[in-house]
Amino acid sequence: MSEGIPAQVIRRWFKEGWNEGNFDLIEELFSTKFHAEGGPHGKLDRLAYRQYAEAVLSAAPDIRCEVIELFEAGEYVVSRVRSTGTHSGNVNGIDATGQEVVTEVVDVWRVVDGAILERRNTEFDTVGLSNQLNRKIRFNPDN
Fold it and tell me: What is the pTM for the complete model shown?
């Protein structure tokens, strides 16, 4: 089965954006009206989403995102991604632990006219992440 434009855009974001650390790609792939909500970051616009991605990369410079499943329905794409990385950088007051971290994330993306307009995080294993780092992690309170 071939993928349409929305799924191709999301797959490219994970491959070139997350896995290759090319966050300049946000300027190309994300709408200027982009917004995200849910997950550890809460509500973000495009600039804040880039800052979030950069903070994650700072905490785990070797992060790799494996697309487990990708379902496209019109302009919506549901992704299930397994992220792995080593917590080797300080972020949000959490000192590096050297611990390998594995998380699975489910998102619903909306791609309009080839640009990512929104991301809604529907599943982020905060308890699992806290357990792997052996500490309680404070996430955005508006979630």
Answer: 0.86
